[in-house]
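Extended Data, panel c. Modelled sequence:
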Amino acid sequence: MRRILVTGAGGAPAANFVDSLRQANEEFHIVGADASPFMVELAAVETRYVIPRADDEAYIDELNSVIEAEGVEFVHPQPDQEVALLARRRAELRTRTFLPSPETVDLCQDKARLTMTLRDGGLRTPRFAVATSRESLVAAASSVVREHGRAWVRARRGAGSRAALPVSSGELAGNWADYWVNERGLAYADFMVSEFLPGPEFAYQSLWRGGELVSAGVRERVEYLFGHLFPSGQSSSPSVARTVDRPDVEETAAAAVRAADPEADGVFCVDLKEDGAGRPLVTEINAGRFFTTSNFFARAGLNMPYWYVKLGLGEELPELPPSGLDEGIYWIRMIDVGYKLVRDGEWTSRRPRGAGG
């Protein structure tokens, strides 16, 4: 039985990664590690460890201690900070990983630099600008608003729509950044501004080896977890998602991964949103970690976390199903309720009949 270590094990993304491995026709001994002594208790794993945060000097030594104590053969880091650290310091790790290069991870974790790279590589990108000061942020947002009606202000780094807000004026963008600078520790140079993309949002999850695509799937985010409570109207993590047949989304996302890293290894998850003309544009790439809902595709038939672990262990893959899934498979989830996969035609709910009906 292969022994796998998952970091960030107390969070939903890691939990769903573990759930994907449990769907495979192979048993794993899974070890969970997390910096939170509370959240790690939620991990559905065989053994749990509390480790330091990735910015702690003791992190690598503590992680190696767990690896040796548990005989770990492969590590999957799920949080961005740990992905970046282990990509840089993989030579110090006493087991296997399957991560992109540190340069690729660093590029993809900087949304502004990634957008520049995609633009320079010939891909269509949203109009964008990088702030250097409050004045430049206000000016950039004002310019985008004049041309597009609204602008999208967000932090260059971070997940979960960090510091994101659609704005209708440059001054509102400045006021929004003021809060994050004065109360949350960001700098004005941490912000970027882009045109607001009004269309539907898509998530492209993909697995690569040596620059060759192994498997991929596309879903549309239909509704968001607590989206109505976020100033931006979305939380980046869906409460409802559905598979879609969108070759244009797949082609654009795959081209973006190749532009970011022609020798791509591991997992690359791409966010896209339609502009006013219905064209899907890339808004970010998560390199080295899975989307939160990786088990959606796994339960629908594309178990990329399992195949990723197999590749990371240097093993041959089983015969894979074709990339992509039938359109109209829904994934519905809510905190403390769980999740459910529903295919078109399998809905169990009924609508109440009207009076006299």
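The chain has ten helices and 15 strands. This feature is highlighted in the accompanying rendering.
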